Amino acid sequence: MAGNENRNHRVNATPNTGTPNTAAPEPAGAVETPADSPPSALRRLRSSIARQVGRAAPTVRDGARRAPVTLAVLAIMWGVFVVGMLTTRSVRSFVDHHLALGIVPIENMRLWTPLTSGVVVVGWLAAIASTVLLLAVAAPTEQRLGSRRFALVAVLTQVGGALVALAFAAAAQVLDEAWGFQLHLGVFSGPFAWILGTLMAASASATTLWRRRIRVGLVAFTAVLALFGGHLGDVMALATVAVGAVVGPLVIGRSPRGSRLAGTRREERVLVALVVAASALGPMIAAFSPNAVGPLAVLRELFRSQPWTVDEVNLVCAADQTSADCRRGLLDLRLGGVGPVIASVLPSVYLLVLADGLRRGRRFAWIAAVVAQAALVVLAAANVLIRFVDDNDTIFYGTAEPTLYRSVVPFVVPVLVLALLVVTRRRFDVAAPRGTYRELWTLVAATAVGLGVLYVLLGTWIRRSFDGDPSVGALLLDYPQRLVPPVLLQWFDAPFLPNSGPTTLLYEWTGIVFWLVLVVATAASFSRVTYGVDSDAAERAREVLRASSGSALSWMTTWRGNRYWFTDDGRSYVAFRVISGVALTTGDPVGPPADRRSAIVGFAEYAAANGWSPCFYSVTPDAAAITSDLGWESIQVGEETVLPLKDLAFTGKKFQDVRTAVNRAKKAGVEAEWISFPTAPLAVTDQITAISEEWVADKGMPEMGFTLGGLDEVDDPAVRCLVAIDEHRTVHGVTSWMPVHRDGVVVGWTLDFMRRRSEGFRPAMEFLIASAALSLQEEGAEFLSLSGAPLAKVGDPTEDSPQATTLSTMLERLLDVVGRTLEPVYGFRSLLAFKSKFQPVYEPMYMTFPDPAALPSIGNAIGRAYLPDVSIAQSVRLVRTMMDR
C-alpha cells in the first residue's frame, strides 16, 4: 500500500449516502447575451454594494454593541483631533502643553495628563495608526474581557504606566544624564501604550501558547523600543506592559493553565531565537531612527559612520590634503552611501538567519551565534579601550559619548546573549546531513577567491579612476577590507579611494556580494532535512527500515536522541542511547527477522567493548525469547494494544462508545482530515502547537520523551496526522500515525501523538482513532497499533507471587509502584483503559538485560531517558502532586 499518499483529504467514518447532483441543464439553444449596457451595469453595481452593506451592517452593529468603550475612545480621539485642527493654530503645541504626558506638564500642575494623554493624538499619521490599533487590537480585547473589565484595565494600565514612566524619567538622570534630560523634556500622547498594556493584561486568561507569545512578544518589542529608541513614549509603552502583567491576574484572574515561561524543548528554542533576533534588530532600529536617545542607541553607529558633511571635508582638505583628518573625512563620505549601509546591515541579517537556525535546534547555528556574540564582545571591549586608554583620538562607535556608562553598554548586551546561549547549549544538538557545511564553506571560500580575483583584475583595469592609482599589490592587500563591515574600517586609513561610478561600485559592492552568498547559503543549509544529533546515521537507519522489517515501535528508532549500531553487512541496526553507563535501546533490532539473534548478540558485544551495560527496552516477545535463551533477565514494562483491521467493524454493544463518538462528530460538523504536519497550512499547525502547549502546561511537567513523541516527532514527512476539524477550520484534536514496515512494505500504522483541545469536541480521540481505522482499512493496512502505555499492564500487578524475592521481581514491583504513583500526572493506566474501548489484542512489551547487578543503573537510565530535562523545581512539583493524590 502507499505509505504517504492522500495527505490532505477528508475521511468519512460512515459511508456516503448522498444523492447525485440533479441540477437542471441549460435550455437547448440558449444564447449568451452581450455585456450589460452601462446603465444596467451601474444598477447591478449599486445592488451589489447595497447587498454587501446589508450583510456587513449586522456585523458592524454587533461590533459596536460589544465594544462600546473602544468606539467611545475612538470618537473622543477624532473629535479632539478635528476640533483642534479647526480651532487652534498649532494642534501639537496645544496638546503638548495641556493634554500630553510629560514631566513639564506635571510640574505645571496639569495632573489630568496621565489620563487625557491616552485619548489624544497629534498628526494625521498618528490618528490613522491609532484608529487601526483601536479597531484591530482594542476592540477584540474588549469583546473578550467585557466592557467593564476592559475599561477598568485600560484606565489602570494608562494611569499606572504613566506614573511609572514619569518616575523612571525623573530618576534616569542619575544613571544617564543625557537620556534623563531628553526624558525630562519629552511628552507623549496617544492610545498606543495602554492598548499594549491592556493586551498584556488580557493575556492572563489566554491559552498557554498565546499567553506566552503575547507576553514574550510585548516585552521584547517594548524593551527594544525603550532601550534603543529611548523616548518617553517608548518608556511609557514598556511601563504599561509591566503594569498590565500585574493588573491582569488581579482584575481578570489567572488562567487555569500552567504559568511556565518555556514549555517544550521546541518552545525553549523559539524563545532563545527571539532573544538573538531582538539583539540583531535593536541596532538596526536605532540606526534608522535619527532621533533615538536610548542607552543602546549608541549601537546605531555600527551601521552609520561618523557624521561628516561635504563642506566640512572640503574645509579640512583645503588646509592640508595629506592630513589624517582629510583622509578620514573622505573615507567617511565614502562609507555613507547606499552600499556601505547595506554592507553594515548584512551581518545583522546573518544573525537573523542564525536565529532561524536556533529555532530549528541546529548545532551550527548555535556555534556561529556564539562566535558572533563573542566577536561583538571583543569589539565592545576595544571600544572601551580606544575611548579611555588610547590617546590618538581614534574614532569608533560610541566614543563621542562623554560617559563610561555609554561606552560599556554595548559590551553588556552581547555578554548577556552569549551567557544565554551557553546556558541553553544542550537545546541545540541537531546536526545537518553529512557534507552540508563542507559544501557551505567550499561555496563561501570559492566566492571569496572569485571576488578577490575579480576585484584585482577590474581594479587594475580602472585603477586610474581611484585617487591613488593603486598597484596590483595594493589592490590585493586592500581586498580583505572589502569583506569587513564598513564601520570597522574607521580603524584604518584607506590607501586609496574611488573617484568614479565604476570604481565606487567595485569598492563598495564586492563585500555585499560576499555577505549575500554567505547569508543565502547558510539559510539554505538550515532548510535541509535533519533527523537529530547524527543525521547521517539516522537517514541510513530510515533507509534500512523502509527496505526491511521492524516492530510496531521501530519508527521510534529514527527519532532524535538515538545513536545507531549497524551490523557488518548493514542490513540490521540497533537504535540506542547511553545514559549512566547503560546502552538503552529503543525496541527490537531492525532488519530481517532471521538476523535478529545475531544483531542482539553483536550489539551486546559492542556495548561490552565500550564498557556499557546493554538493555533492550520495549521489545516484543520474540526478542525477549531470544535474550532468554542467552540467559538474560526480562521484565514486562508495558502492554501494546493492536487493532487488526481485516474484519474490523464497529458494531455491537462493545463498540457503543466508539459509535457514539462518530455520530456526535457528524452532528457537530466535525470531520477527520489527513494532513502532513510539515506541509499543512499554518492555520492548522499553529492550532496543533497551541493544543500541545496547553497539554504540557496542564501537566506542569516537561513532555516525556524516549518512546513518547512530541511535536518534533510529528514534524516528519513520513508520519501522517489525522485531525478533527470543524466547518470553521477549528482543530479539536490530533493524532499522529507512524508507518510499520515488513519486507519493505508499509503494512500497518502505529499511534503516537494524541492531543485534544481542552474546550473542544470531547470525544475527539475516539472519533479520530475510529476514523483512522476505517480509512486505513480501505487503504489495505493490516493492523493499527495503538502503541503501548509505559509502566501500565493489563491485570492487577499486585497478583505477583509474594514468595518471589529475586532482584528482577523486586524491580518489576517497583515499576508497578512508580506507574501507580505517576498516574495522577501522566495517566498511563488511564490511557491503557481508554484504548480498551476499541477491543484490541494485547501484546506484552519487555525490558531485557544480561546483568541483574546493573538494575539500579538501568532504572536511573530509563527515568532520565523519559525525562531528560526535568528541573529541580519540577521534581519537587512532581513529588508534591503525587503526595496530594
Automatic annotation (TrEMBL):
Primary location: membrane
Q: Which residues form the Peptidase S54 rhomboid domain?
A: 110-250
Q: Where are the transmembrane segments?
A: 71-91, 111-138, 150-175, 181-202, 214-229, 235-252, 272-293, 337-355, 364-388, 408-428, 440-462, 506-526
Give me the stretches of Low complexity compositional bias: 12-30
Tell me where in this chain the Phosphatidylglycerol lysyltransferase C-terminal domain is found: 544-848
- Could you confirm whether the keyword Transmembrane helix appears in this record? yes
Asked if Acyltransferase is a keyword of the record, the answer is no
- Alphabetically ordered keywords of this record: Cell membrane, Membrane, Transmembrane, Transmembrane helix
Coiled coil located at which positions? none
Q: Which residues form the signal peptide?
A: none
Q: How does it sit in the membrane?
A: Multi-pass membrane protein
Where is it located?
Cell membrane
Q: Where is this region: Disordered?
A: 1-40
| Protein name stated in the entry | DUF2156 domain-containing protein
The organism named in the record is Rhodococcoides kroppenstedtii
